[in-house]
Design goal:
mainly alpha
């Protein structure tokens, strides 16, 4: 199965973006958990990943499909005062930032 067919089977847009960023762009779960709305440059199709210990920020170029899907997710994302991009969608922690472990658990169900 190719990536496009696989991704089309993921109906939750948040999960689709998570898988796209991990599989197509090599991002790690902890990077996605720390990603903020300020780290996304929609115009230039880039994500800026802050490295720990003061290292230089890594730039992740995005495909048209990935930036479009990320933008679509942000339009339907639950309102939150938190700047973290990926939020818990259900349960007691709804609207709270998604942890790296939570991200891994979400995407594991697709593999």
């Amino acid at each position: 199965m190719n990536n496009g067919a696989f991704l089309s089977e993921i109906t939750k847009i948040r999960d689709r973006v998570l898988v796209m960023l991990i599989v197509n762009h090599g991002m790690k779960a902890h990077e996605l958990a720390e990603l903020t709305t300020n780290d996304i440059d929609y115009q230039n199709k880039k994500i800026f990943v802050k490295q720990s210990c003061g290292a230089i920020t890594r730039v992740v170029p995005l495909s048209n499909g990935s930036i479009d899907t990320l933008a679509a997710y942000m339009r339907v994302r639950s309102p939150s005062m938190d700047r973290k991009v990926f939020l818990v969608e259900e349960g007691d922690y709804r609207g709270q930032p998604q942890s790296a472990q939570g991200i891994l658990e979400r995407i594991e169900c697709y593999f």
